[in-house]
Amino acid sequence: MMALNSELQSSQGTIGALKTSVKDLVFQNQELLEKNISLQESSAEALKVSSCLSEAQSSAVQQLRFELSHCTEELDSLVSLSISLLKGQEPNPIMLFGSDSRAIPSDEDLSEDFESRLAQVKCLRHKIEDLRSMISEHFATQLSSVCHVQ
Questions:
Q1: Can you give 31-73 as a three-state secondary structure string?
Q2: Where is each Centrosomal protein of 85 kDa-like CC4 coiled-coil domain found (predicted)?
């Protein structure tokens, strides 16, 4: 009986720590999603008026588009890292530290890159939905194992 109590307490502690970790990941994911959406909205507005912009303003639009692109890459990396952790796999060290390929693309690169970025964002959205499902399944599995012990 004492061994079962000890095992139950240990399991509950582990589940509590896991819940906290997942909550932190979900919170970080939500922050990045909100930042990404905000940047996308800002970028869309900037694209509408970009033909009427001064050179300084045009440069700011370029930087905004670049930051949106970088944010998307970072969010993709975080989602991939979260999925691998939930699957119990060793995380890719490159993903742990994030990517740092921050060369500012030229105007030509940005215009050609628009369609591929849009496709990347759509793919990322699907990966985020998958991550959310995996987290839900993980919690359900953890809760069912706790209920079984009790």
A1: HHHHHHHHHHHHHHHHHHHHHHCCHHHHHHHHHHHHHHHHHHH
A2: 3-40
DSSP H helix total and E strand total for the chain: 4, 0
State pLDDT tens for residues 73-131. Answer: 888 888 888 888 888 888 777 766 665 454 445 555 555 567 777 788 888 888 888 88
Question: Which of 81, 83, 74 has its CA nearest to residue 32?
Answer: 74
Amino acid residing at 22? V
* Cα–Cα distance for residue pair 31/27, rounded to 1 Å: 6
Residue in the block written with tokens 């599995």: 141
1 in Cβ contact with 143 (< 8 Å): no
Q: Which long-range contacts (CB under 8 A, 24 or more apart) does 40-46 make?
A: 40/68, 40/121, 42/68, 43/68
Nearest to 112 by CA among 77, 65, 75: 65
Instruction: Name the DSSP letter for residue 96.
Output: H
Degrees, nearest 5: CA angle 79-38-137: 30
